[in-house]
Write a structure and sequence with these properties.
Distance between the termini: 23 Å
Shape: globular
CATH superfamily of one domain: Ribonuclease H-like superfamily/Ribonuclease H
CATH architecture of one domain: 2-Layer Sandwich
Strand content: 15-25%
Radius of gyration: 21 Å
Helix content: 40-55%
Structural class: alpha/beta
Number of strands: 5
Number of helices: 11
Strand order of the largest sheet: 3-2-1-4-5
CATH topology of one domain: Nucleotidyltransferase, domain 5
CATH class of one domain: Alpha Beta
Length: 293
Amino acid sequence: MDRPRLPLGDVVFALGVKTYSMLSGRRATSFIRDAASLGLLDAVPSYNTAFRYLEKPELTDVLKMLIEESAKPLAVIESNFAIDSTGIGTTTYRRWFDHKWGRERSTQTWVKVHAMTGTTTNIVTAIAATATESADTVQLPALLARTAESFDIREVSADRAYSSKSNLHAITDVGAMPYIPFKQGSTGEQTHHKFDGLWSRMWFYYQFKREQFLTHYHRRSNAETTFHMVKSKFGGSVRAKTPTAQVNEALLKFLCHNVVVLIQSIYELGIEPEFWSDEDCLKSQSLPQKSCG
């Protein structure tokens, strides 16, 4: 008879403790056992078991959901948002043979993380992570839509990498004002492309009210602040070897960051915490039942 599966909630908790402590799996076990003695989890997964769960693609969606859930209590605070991307280092390398120079070359691989963050508290409201290089501009609509489900968005700031007509329309469609500078060579006039009124208005606003535009746009630097907070507290690289595990380990860093920001906001902003019971967890439509426990 097979051994019964560990509750997914216990595994994620253990992985979170390991990530927060920045210790190896073996050394973090004592902290996980202490948490179990306090009744915070039912079973103590071994570090090898926890690492095997990191390899599961289905864990990725669970971690994204937990990041979004941990941000929701700050919906009463956040209304201005910034989006950006960053690289999380790995210990793996991509190798190829350079026929021109007749030798093998290698380069370090990265986990590319795209995040929407509140500019008041630096909470991450939506996130995407890939084990390969991915363009910034195509990530905005999905992250914006996820954030708009729980937050009243008034402003969205982003750098030139996100400058496109579709992104401007996506932002205004949720009732927000886009603050995205235009790339060099962009014009607000009708050319061989179909005329776009929103693009034209924003271009003239950017050109002739630059100082006012930049006052709002500079909120974007808070996205870089968020990435610095994550990397300085939880490390700027992951230890996992496979792409799926690397993505999940990177997401765990941002989950820990959100928990830290949420606790800080409870004390500094006077937010009253309301903790879920097991029954509340099972009744929720947004949380999978197997993650409760």
